[in-house]
Amino acid sequence: MGRRACLDMICYFSFCQKTLTFSICILSLVLSCVIGDVIVEQSHISATEGQSSDVTLKCIVTSNHEPVVNWLFNMKIEIDESPIFTSKYTLSMTPESSTRRAYKLRIRQINRLDQGNYECKVTIKKDEFKQVITLTVGYLKKNPSVDCNLFKSSGRFNNLSGARTSNTTKILILSCKADIGLNIEANCMTSKSGNGQMVPLHSENKTQSSATVDVDYSYPVNVSGLDGWRFWCVVGNPMLPDPVNCSTYMLLKPQAKIMEVEERRINCTSTTTPYPSDVSFRWKVCPNSKKNTTDVDQDNDSCEILNETSSFLTLTAEMGSGVILHCQIKNEVCISHASLIITDAVDERVPHQSWIKWVIGSLVVVLSIGVVAAMVVKKSEMRTFLQRSGKKRTESTTDKTTTDASQMPLYATPNKNNNKGATHRSSLNTRYEMHAPDPVYHVLEK
How much of the chain, in percent, has pLDDT values that exceed 70? Predict the structure, then answer.
């Protein structure tokens, strides 16, 4: 109601002109407009956790009568001067004129829990007036983060392998997504680095208005010739001790190389992992001349395009001999070339090389078998020699021991029961002592 009550009464006054007297309608209009009115200076207030310590909400009431004012939080909790609220809220009233009063609600130590709708409810006699003030509280997340990627119009780059037939553009989209908090302003910047340089590209301020939706900002970048460079997404805020940043993968150009995968089939591959990894291939055959050898583009009438759909190429006799095969690998950063000179006809060269490979392989197998057999024979002969040497040494020791025993006196005979006066013979043969101990003899008197 309030001002709205006056407008309603004006509509009623127009109706009265047709039904009642003019004086009665004017009296009704005046009585309705002087009941009261409620306004607020700000319907929306923003604050930041940790920066704005206190926030004051103001509700201005205009009336000739004494109003009753109540504050409600989120339309449910009534804030009054009871002890449970006095530590957090302060209620006050300041008269501005005889009919105008300012009712204030002060909120101490603003935090994210204070965010919501605050309703100023005014009662004048039997009429009620309401105004709502929305308080938005911004705060930083504990672990702010930034994500960055390079995009094309068709989607994000990935590590898929294979060829593309369409021409690739050198303009890509650097997409940055920042998640730093809620209802907080972020200074979003993009830059590139390489060769010891950091080059700023773009800067803009954005507000993250949702805790679940990131701040998304993009910027087109030209990556042509930027081999070894990176692109950066940087987000700053006065409450952040350091800006949060993210970099893309390092841009790398392909390094073309021609490899033989099987007979009459070759492959154009890259010795490095290019980024962006989406690459295209092209095969050309050119006459063998100095110009075609040094001209990396091979864009002349004497060259013929063989393949633009695959990195593989099958050699055929129609290519002839004395020609140059050119392989081209291209991504958004750079183009790389590799060449192969064919000196012999394909149908003669390939079988000849295969025959040579078969002969060499056979010789290697035969030599390997011969070496292994010789080692086995040598090992067997060595084992036989060692066995014979051991047998001869054993026989010699046995003969010597027998001879020593026969030279003993005839009157000396073994005596197993009496060892008194016995003498021991020490054999010179250590092996005999270990396996056959010396006998004990009893010397008889003559």
Answer: 70
In tens, the pLDDT along 366-418 reads 888 988 888 888 888 887 877 777 666 665 555 554 444 444 444 444 444 44
**Do residues 102 and 60 lie in contact, with contact meaning Cβ atoms separated by under 8 Å?**
yes
Centre a 10 Å sphere on the Cβ of residue 16 and count the other Cβ atoms it contains. 17
Which is nearest to 338 in space by CA: 257, 435, 244, 412? 257
In this structure, what token pair is assigned to residue 124?
């004048």
Residue 123, classified by CB atoms within 10 Å of its CB into exposed (0-12), middle (13-18) or buried (19+), is middle
The per-residue pLDDT for range 41-58, each reduced to its tens digit, is 788 998 988 776 799 999
- Phi/psi for 408 (5° steps) reads -70, 155
Which are the contacts of 153, defined by CB distance < 8 A and separation ≥ 6? 173
pTM equals 0.58
How many whole angstroms from its chain centre is CA 146? 12
Q: In three state form, how does the secondary structure of 378-439 look?
A: HHHHHHHHHHHHHHHHHHHHHHHHHHHHHCCCCCCEECCCCCCCCECCCCCCHHHHHHCCCC
271: helix, strand or coil = coil
Cβ-contact 186, 210 below 8 angstroms: no
From 274-288, 319-333, 349-363, 405-419, the region with the lowest mean pLDDT:
405-419
Helices marked H in 34-145 — which ranges? 83-86
- Residue whose C-alpha is closest to residue 404's, from 427, 430, 433: 427
